[in-house]
Design brief:
Elements: H1 2-16, H2 23-46
Helix pairs in contact: 1-2
């Protein structure tokens, strides 16, 4: 779970610095990571 939050932060920081990355790709990565984070959180609550 920690690595996922760290990865989202990396993507957001990269966008903030205006690095030459595809914004659309980054947004997709953020959305996918966010969905995975929600799934993991839901599983965590069940356990």
């Amino acid at each position: 779970m920690y690595w996922l939050t760290k990865r989202i932060k990396q993507i957001e920081e990269a966008n903030g610095r205006g690095m030459e990355r595809s914004c659309l790709r980054d947004m997709t990565e953020i959305q996918e990571a966010d969905e995975e984070l929600r799934r993991l959180s839901a599983v965590n609550m069940v356990l």
